[in-house]
Amino acid sequence: MASVLGMLEERETAARVRVEGLREEVARLAGVLEAAEIELDRRVIAREELVEALAASAAEATAVTEAKAETVSSPAPVPGSIVPPWREGLPVTVLAPDYQRILGVLDDRQPAGQKPLKAKEITVQLGLEATSAKVEGVRSKARRLAERGWLVQETSGMFSVGRRPVPVPDAAPSA
Length: 175
Known about the structure:
mainly alpha
């Protein structure tokens, strides 16, 4: 019987050693976890501070940009920019280059008194391939110019030169 009791004591001692090792490992991991939580807190605070600083900087930049925009009468156009409604004294240079080119094609025809052009003819005059995608792009831009008073769109779908003021809705014009 002594041998069975000895085996149980050996197993108990091994289990006790294992438990102590695991307790030491848990204590070490608790220290690692605490350090990681402190680092996480620092990074969260740093991000929040950065977001606040960027928001304040953006607000200042917006105020400066708005102040500059009030002093500039006609901003430089960018591709995809908004087509403003035509009004007396508004230069063509407020339009994006693609729109300026369409107006140029039709303006060149005005002194000669030539007939209005279809979108496909404008596309060819611009030096573009007369594919359906290109023609539809030009048609869309010409319609937008007509809606904003820069061109006249005939009932036949043809476009000609003719600037006229148009009523400005409360909503901002689309690109």
